Amino acid sequence: MQQSNLKAGCAVRRQPGCLRTSRPRLAKRVSYRSHLKRGGRLERPVAFVEQSEIVLTEHGRPVAGTYPDTFAILDSPANLCQIWSRNAEQYGNLVAIQDPHQEGSPKMTFRQLYDTMQDFAAGLHELGVAKHGKVALFSENSSRWLVADGAIMACGAAGVVRGATAPPEELLYIAQHSGATGLVVQDGAVLSRLLAHERAQEPNPLRSLRFVVLLWGECDPAHSSAVGCPVLSYNMVLQNGVAARQSGNFVPAVVAPEDLATLVYTSGTTGHPKGVMLTHANLSYQVRNLSHFLAVQPGDRVLSLLPPWHIYERTCSYFVLSRGGQQVYTNIRRLRDDLTAFTPDHFVCVPLVLDTLHTRVQQRLSAAPRHRAVIASALLAAGAAFVQARRIVMGLSVQQALPTIGLAGLVRRWAQILGAALLAALLAPLHWLASKLVYGKVREALGIRKTVVSGGGSLAAHLDDFYEALGLTVLNGWGLTETSPVLACRRSNPPEQNIRGSVGVPTPGTQLRIVDPETLEPLPDGRQGLVLAKGPGIMAGYYSDEAATARAFRAGDGWFDTGDLGWVAPPWVPGSRCTGHLVLTGRAKDTIVLSSGKNVEPLPIEDAVAASTLIKHVVLVGQDKRELGALVWPDEDALAAGPEASLLPGQLEERLMGEVARLNVARPDYHPFEHVAHIAVVRTPLSVDDGTLTRTMKPRRPEIMKRQAATAATLLARLRG
């Protein structure tokens, strides 16, 4: 049986002017004097080579056969602390961060950011933070979060991170379970909320703290007496740190790669959240290798929207800043304005944000004069059809990535390619016209100049089509908190490595293996199975939870069970250039088994149906039934703006049922047993606060089924048994 075992960066043909190694490691210092004499130069002016490929240029042009942004060439940090000191030297006066919506609109250069981190670290050290200690960091996105994060690590301690809007009982549990000796919290309001909740809890988690620091706002004297330890403001800690550094009382800790960098608590579907232990080696590995997927140049601007304690946003932030990029903090209320006020070169987000932007474009078209709306919508549809056909012709469609069966299947495959070529030729003039009349205006309204990086959830096909037609590069990555996080991602360069419908290729040094979910035996390429991962980004384990750690590594030999199902595009498939790319199909625990014995992965259906402008979220049901049902949350804004606003409940259900059926049947891989027979319309919104949405805005199925138990039971009763 063929083993599906992807190992990025291996067995690749040596390119002219390139050094290729078999696994991730730091290469020796290299001299290219003869190349420099011919007018060439290193793509980046640094001394070390990471991930084995050196890209040289002749008079500013890449040497033939290499890609200028394929791999990072940098002085590789052994720990995260080294990023900030190196950046201060290399990018000193470049602007590193802007925080326009906070008090005073803070802006810092790389030198100022490093010095502020050191001052804050010295202040924390004065409060007793030392190597191998733990400090709870409960706050939302801001420049001061980044300062506190870097300062905690400079002391040799680990930040125990969670968002300030999480339930108080969850935050208090995390503070107690982690053994944190200090608390850095967003502001006095959050501290008051914790104090109000903890009075009813014994033992009192806050009584074990040595100090509390407020990132924003001034201290309330009542807080100190209530907590029983000093409560300081951000500025007070900075002032104490400046004095400590001037008197020579602070020396940054010596941090080893294997030292704990952070504890990230994941939301459990049942019971308490688990603390994921990520080391400096885990996160530094990500920082070194994300350039394999995305090229960030010094001065490139990135909008920071997602929670900074979410490891996807956090690692991307470290990476962008390590390359001299500029990070501008925004929030969901300000995003629309900030996309044009601070036009980003790159934008890191979750699929829901891309869906929201897409919906806004559709709404603006609907509000235009009828003749313009009809023309623009037709051109956008033609553009989507064009890029779909072009992918098939170029061999970049995942629908064509699996082998055909027999001669008849091969004939059908080439007939599809020929038909796609004809369609692309017919639609090319319309696509060109759309680029002149529509796409440019939409791109200008979106404000994003180069690249969108989507993660934290699956990216629906209609969004891929829409943004590709616009000419905006969208990369889709995949990973988990436990993998720090990026296991695989689509690549921006070369463009043919950005395979829509896939999550790309493994991060260099990471191995992926597809196995049978029951036996854990390896499966051949092209077969769906459970995805296992192994590599430098995999966590050290769950904090104080050996049983959960053992379950996560049940496959043995360091292989981590991702819980995701997928398949790898096999080689030598006629008409396909998708070899080695990973396609995810769902979560193993979410699989619906019908009474017929057929297995249904909900995610592809839910993503397809959510393409409707009238539908916000979908959750499939149907376990042990003969057919599927769906809980459907309508897009209330879209309903209010359209003729559906006047529909009665029964009429609305019928209207949405038509949308569900239409979009489900239109899927390229639709099977008759995946027919959705009935739906239930739910008007109670999903939210992060009540636990029905994850922090990356994905529906949380267990919590939804608990809260909507009656609705789900009624729907299931309508399905054939």
TrEMBL record:
Which Gene Ontology molecular-function terms are recorded? Answer: long-chain fatty acid [acyl-carrier-protein] ligase activity
Q: Which GO terms describe its cellular component?
A: chloroplast
Q: Which PANTHER family match?
A: ACYL-ACTIVATING ENZYME 16, CHLOROPLASTIC-RELATED (PTHR43813:SF1)
Sequence ranges assigned to domain AMP-dependent synthetase/ligase in this UniProt record? 86-543
Q: What is the protein name given in its UniProt record?
A: AMP-dependent synthetase/ligase domain-containing protein
- Output the GO biological process annotations, alphabetical, semicolon-separated: fatty acid elongation
Which residue ranges run through the membrane? none
Q: Per the record, a Pfam family?
A: AMP-binding
